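ok so i was messing around last nite and threw this chain in just to see what happens. nothing serious, just curious
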Amino acid sequence: MNSEGRNEESKSLIENLERAGMSRRGILQGVGGASAFLGMAGLAGQAGAQDAPKDVDGKVIPGFEEHQGDPNAAKGWQPVSDRKVRVGIAGYGLCQFGAAFFYQNHPNVEVVAATDLDPQRCAGLARAVGAKKTYPSCEEMIKDKSVEAIYIATDAPSHARLAIMALKRGKHVCSAVPAVFGFEAEDEAEKLFNAVKKSGMKYMMNETSTFHAELYAKRMQYQAGALGKIIYSEGEYYHDSVGTLGSYNPKNGRIDRFGWRRALVPMWYPTHATAYYVSVTGGRLTEVSGLGTASLYAEYQDGKNAHRNAFGTEVAMFKTSEGGMSRMAVSWDMKNAHGEQGRVYGQKPHDKNIKGDRPALPPSVGAGGHGGSHGQLTNNFIESILLDKKPIVDVSEALNMTLAGVIAHKSALKDGEWLKIPQYAI
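result:
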């Protein structure tokens, strides 16, 4: 049987068992096929040696197509400390993100605890990262006084709530994107910002575009003063059919097609695009006019989806804090459009004499997916704790990247009316 036939047969089997009341993850674990279906075998082995994770239909999940293992990534790396930060990891999920960022391989990390709401996923995460302790929930793991830092790789709607809880318990926090989410985003932003400021702990958002090689090179150019003011920038995040992907469903505790991603508002997940201004300059997107187009996918058309969203594609024009312009686009339904990319244009030309190489990584830490960003993000977060320095995407930048999209969606609902974006700066 060819691979297409096997995929269709597997898909049919899963759907039949789901109708019988079994969770998709439970089915995969039960038949011993988790690594076969999701393509994640060997994740806890040698750095960078994993297969690309696949969705429930056997397709490689965007962002994992190429594992950019730079042979020179460890060249010149020097340890900054011999201390190990005790880390707890929350969330395995469809992408198995909890194990995909190399905490278990970092020489300055001891992964002491792991959690996932699904017991089988929790056990799988613990095995993958070598955690000796497991907890039934992130809330319970946060109570563990031995955990110094939490990596939150849970479903997007829970990021802010869990981050705030961990910060109040005196723990450093690294959160998957976005920092805040949905209808509650603006209220969550205020609470998250205050929690970071009051706690004095490190908070970082794992924005993968920040460590894309071309973005990081532009960042180095800008910081050196080579580009002058950024006159125009643009960022794009295109991922066809993301609103139909399986994801965590809080109503039944399963990963299914009715989870939080269903009919997801494009601009509620904007940071892969908005990073192409914010992470280059450290500046702010201050005002926005946004438009959206109705999606052709059925998930968006019945008017009853959880997000009350009809838009499959949203494009926004922003004003920037340095007086420039920025266009950001997020789309879930454009054909032949794919990936995370952007362009940055300043008053001055790119200076080829300024090095833009990404920082060296510990030899045991791989570059990973999303343009070779995974290892860089983890190393930056851990070094921010060890050296008591600002993480590369701190709470101010995380909130600006995220709220820019939230307000852009509000503008799209008002046919492009210009709206101001809340500003947070430490």
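not much to say yet. Residues 1-50 have pLDDT under 50 and may be disordered.
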